[in-house]
Fold this protein.
Amino acid sequence: MSEEIETEQQILEAAKQIFQERGFAGARMQEIADEADINKSMLHYYFRSKDKLFQKVFQDSIRQFFPEILKVLHADLALTPKIEKLVETYYEMFRKHPHLPRFVIHEMNQHPDRFKEFVKNMGFEIPETFVKQIRQEIESDSMLNIDPREFIINTIGLCVFPLIARPMIETVFKMNNEQYQQFLEQRKKELPKFILNAVKK
Amino acid sequence: MSEEIETEQQILEAAKQIFQERGFAGARMQEIADEADINKSMLHYYFRSKDKLFQKVFQDSIRQFFPEILKVLHADLALTPKIEKLVETYYEMFRKHPHLPRFVIHEMNQHPDRFKEFVKNMGFEIPETFVKQIRQEIESDSMLNIDPREFIINTIGLCVFPLIARPMIETVFKMNNEQYQQFLEQRKKELPKFILNAVKK
DNA sequence: GTCTATATAACGATAGAC
DNA sequence: GTCTATCGTTATATAGAC
């Protein structure tokens, strides 16, 4: 039935919101039911247990953002526009799912082995094309000799950190919501320059 | 009594470990008691409630690492050794308290207002001396014109991210524990160069 | 499929003996 | 100050009527 799929989808959206905001341990099945505007027992009817529902949400969350990032890394673009595109992609994702980065970071550390097996099974890997691109830049003397792994981690870290550290940033730099958003806008423009300059010879 | 203080300290150490590892919602009073090797009811005798015990641990955690970072920023050092010292400080802290950065990030986002008020009350602020140092470097044309806030956030983000993203890094780059530690060692040397080069004219 | 009612277990917290 | 026993609540999960 179409009703069935609709209810299931409704539950998943609500669960995604609550789990991403509060984490597995902090989330309540009742709160998810309220958010989905359905009866609590329906959660068990469709997903059997809190853990199974969580697994689905967690794995969907990773499937949602990981391939998108890898796609940008693999794209047929020069380094500069590629980094710009990557930063843009991260900030767009954050706009749509503000709790996603912190959620994944917290939960993958709670069950690292489970997480690792999932990522391995999904076959998520850094595109070899991107590693080659970095190596080529280095060989052609247009880039400092940096470990490609370091470069990737640095780039993603620079994208993610200001998003998960929001309360700290707002406090230390005395920003309100609006000023923080404005800060992110400015940062979106400046960050690619920072990254590229860091590896420029 | 000395016994009293000792027990209290024992509880705090156990609570710190469990809370930092599992977060507030994921932590169990029984597990803290087991870790401290005392009776569960003692936790309430000394700290009344789970929330009060957590507040103490959370605030102590911040008081433990925040001033240390600010001290380095304020130190009378040239920019290069200061960044080296900052990176060193972060990695040393992580060696002692592997869950601390993720713990603070997760919990401050769960209760941002409570967090903000605490930081404000503690009077934690970015040393004006450091901001001046950045401005001076820019004015003397030895540094690109970067917003000092961006520079601080970038530096700290680059220190923290590889620590909180450990399971992801280990999986994507196919590292075991030993290789990850080795990667961090290499990174400790390379990171200051990356940061300084990013703002070099 | 969806609801109400309830089982069952876990958790934070307290009472009271020592 | 420390222990055992237990209260009261809340959480996940299920049974059973419709």
Chain B is about 80% helix and 0% strand. The CA atoms of residues 64 and 198 of chain B lie 30 Å apart. Chain B touches chain A through 53 residues (CB under 8 Å). Residues 1, 3-4, 7, 38-39, 41-42, 45 of chain B lie near DNA strand D (CB under 10 Å from a C1').
